[in-house]
Amino acid sequence: MESGTVGSGSGRSDTQNGAGGGVTERIEVHNPAAGGVVATVDVDSPERVAEAATVLLPGSPLSHPDHDWLARVLAGALAGRLALYAEQPYTRRAGTAPAPPRWLEDVLGPHPFVPARAGLRDRLAKWRAIRCYGSQLPLLAMRRSVRRGPASLALAPEAVAWVGDRGPV
Questions:
Q1: Domain count, the chain
Q2: In whole angstroms, how far apart are CA 111 and each of 94, 97, 118, 156, 159?
Q3: Which terminus of the chain is less hemmed in, N or C, by CB atoms within 10 Å?
Q4: Parallel, antiparallel, or unpaired for β 82-86 and 55-60?
Q5: Residue 103 domain flag
Q6: How far, in Å, CA of 109 to CA of 100, rounded?
Q7: Please, which pLDDT band fits residue 143 given cuts at 50, 70 and 90?
Q8: Tens-place pLDDT, residues 104-119
Q9: Is the peptide bond preceding residue 65 cis, with omega within 30 degrees of 0?
Q10: Does residue 10 fall inside a structural domain?
Q11: What is the dihedral of CA 42, 48, 54, 58, to 10 degrees?
Q12: Which residues fall within 8 angstroms of residue 169, CB to CB, at 6 or more apart?
């Protein structure tokens, strides 16, 4: 939702959301410049989230305010089945190994980031997702650059910090 803002026009939908069902809330994402709705995002119910074996949250470097907010709101509540991911391109831009901020370690304890496997299919999906942020690429100095562009980011190493003894499921 970095390209817009969450609108006050949130609504609820009675649609079932895959196995387990549950009411899904829909949040409208508005373009801050034009004011129009640019997307509608389905948000799973607490019951659906409770069914998840593992929930991924941004964990490093948390330099984007939305990512920091999300981690602060959910980290303690989901600690038993949580994994933190190193955020790209922010981790690469920081130029250091991923590490959670001190406040997050105080909540969850220390958990090292380890390499995460990503196959060709994963890399292609990531490349396609990066290209959806076309308006953001120039701000991140990622347009028209082979070294820093979407393809290089799609090939960047992935890292995850598994909270507790869970590990990959």
A1: 1
A2: 19, 13, 20, 21, 12
A3: C
A4: parallel
A5: no
A6: 10
A7: low
A8: 999 998 989 999 988 9
A9: no
A10: yes
A11: 30
A12: 53, 54
Cα–Cα dist 60/132, whole Å:
22
Provide the domain limits for residue 37: 1-44
The rounded radius of gyration (Å) of the Cα atoms in the chain is 17
> Which pair of tokens denotes residue 11?
């609504």
Query: What does the alpha-carbon distance between residue 63 and residue 65 come to, in Å, rounded to a whole number?
Result: 6
Distance CA 55, CA 82 (A): 5
pLDDT greater than 50 at residue 74: yes
Is 159 a member of any domain? no
Beta-carbon count within 10 A of 83 CB: 21
Q: In the numeric block, which tokens belong to residue 135?
A: 């308006």
For 12, 21, 25, 41, 58, the CA distances from 46, given in Å and listed in that order, are: 14, 11, 10, 16, 19
Indicate whether 74 belongs to any domain: no
How many residues would you count in the chain?
169
**Of residues 73, 23, 58, the one with CA closest to residue 44:** 23
Dist. CA 141–CA 92, nearest whole Å: 12
Question: Which pair of structure tokens corresponds to residue 1?
Answer: 């939702």
Confidence at residue 115, expressed as pLDDT on a 0 to 100 scale? 92
